[in-house]
Specification:
Rossmann fold; 8-stranded mixed sheet; globular; 16 helices; alpha/beta; single chain
């Protein structure tokens, strides 16, 4: 190796050694300000990403907003994000990585994340904020705090609403036929159980044709479509809904599709691009967050954040669907709990225990929530939201439109 090469290598090694030092200097706390790290485990590149990537943007923007406005005095928030690629094998890796990065609270977005990480969170006393809920995280009550409610609760509430408001038993002269299709994952298995429970508890309302659960990632639907062709309503959740509906309608079959827990609303842009509003017309969904067309202080704040932090992306984020504005809805509660905890113990003493203590006494309040029912956590309740609104895709409006007011969730 000649002299110039040796010098170049030395300088390169010095540069590599200096990079982490310069990064750590950039993250050093300002005098009197404590940095609190929030971890995120989400799907940035897998099949959930068309919906949840804008939730990732929302968390970034909410952190910037709280920092810029000084909304939590004495604190600067920092975010570290792990891409789980919708792969269950990457959940625990992401949890350990976020802990290693100093996260004091971890936000998760995919329902399976809360299920898989609950034992670790309970063991380590690490607060996990779940933006989508699975029933298995609720009992026994622990360190996973769900800012929404579970899809099986949504489904039972939707079935009750369909039986009372949507299906005309007298005109049709029979009960409605209902089917389920989807990928094999925790959420769809909980939905299957919920349907079976509802049918057993409400005889004479629903004819459950059956469930057709296929390996994760399946995009080619065959006999599942034919098996459900006589259904009046079919539940398919999230990403698989597009490919299933496309195949179902290509074969000339008709049914009303439903997606409980706002999945279809969050995949709005993806579904419209694949199917068009005409094919989606009448598709039912349920949610507790406002949609972009709703005029509320929360949608106003969501638009303000987009214009402030990502004006070039704003139109695309809104078109994508519910996720960003739903994220603002959920994260406002998250950050208020965080603020309450820091106010109680001081920035220097903030810990996972402080967040836990603030969470179990949290109730929604203030001007942002005036048009909402009051929601709360308790020492034993680990889902925040108690009510939902039923909406449908409308080809005429080219949007989602609300079909109901607030409905209390069926939680058992």
């Amino acid at each position: 190796m000649n002299y110039k090469c040796k010098i170049s290598v030395v300088f390169l090694l010095i540069l590599v050694l200096l990079i982490p030092l310069s990064l750590s200097c950039g993250e050093r706390d300002e005098p009197g300000v404590v940095t609190i790290t929030i971890g995120e485990i989400t799907d940035l590149t897998g099949p959930g990403s068309p919906a949840v990537i804008t939730l990732h943007y929302c968390l970034q923007d909410m952190i910037s907003y709280y920092n810029d406005e000084g909304l939590i005095p004495g604190v600067r928030l920092k975010m570290v994000a792990w891409d789980n690629r919708y792969d269950p094998s990457r959940e625990v890796l992401g949890y350990d990585w976020a802990k290693g990065k100093g996260a004091k609270v971890i936000v998760v977005i995919i329902p399976q994340s809360g299920v898989m990480l609950k034992p670790y969170a309970d063991r380590d006393r690490m607060p996990i904020v779940a933006l989508s809920t699975h029933r298995d995280t609720l009992h026994p009550p622990g360190w996973v705090f769900n800012m929404s409610n579970s899809a099986d609760m949504h489904l039972k509430t939707l079935l009750k609403w369909i039986s009372e408001e949507h299906w005309n038993y007298a005109q049709e002269g029979r009960v409605f036929k209902f089917g389920l299709a989807g990928w094999s994952e925790p959420q769809i298995l909980a939905i299957k159980k919920a349907i079976e429970e509802y049918v057993q508890d409400n005889p004479g309302q629903v004819d459950f044709v059956g469930s057709y659960i296929v390996p994760f990632g399946t995009m080619m639907w065959g006999h599942e479509v034919d098996a459900l062709k006589g259904c009046d309503y079919i539940c398919v959740m999230g990403y698989p809904m597009g490919s299933f509906m496309k195949r179902f309608q290509e074969k000339g079959y008709n049914a009303t599709f439903i997606d409980p827990s706002a999945g279809a609303a969050s995949y709005r842009g993806f579904l419209v691009d694949m199917l068009g509003y005409g094919a989606l017309d009448g598709t039912l969904t349920s949610n507790s967050a406002p949609f972009w067309s709703d005029k509320t202080p929360i949608t106003d704040l969501a638009r303000e954040l987009l214009q402030r932090y990502r004006p070039q992306q704003a139109e695309d984020v809104i078109y994508a669907g519910l996720a960003y504005v739903g994220g603002v809805h959920n994260l406002l509660n998250t950050f208020q709990i965080l603020a309450n905890a820091i106010e109680a113990v001081g920035p220097e003493n903030f810990s996972g225990q402080a967040f836990y203590d603030a969470a179990i006494t949290y109730k929604t309040s203030g001007t942002l929530w005036e048009e909402y029912p009051q929601w709360e956590f308790t020492e034993t309740k680990r889902y925040l939201v108690n009510d939902v609104i039923i909406s449908e895709f409308s080809a005429e409006a080219k949007d989602l439109v609300n079909l109901s007011g607030w409905l209390p969730l069926i939680t058992d």
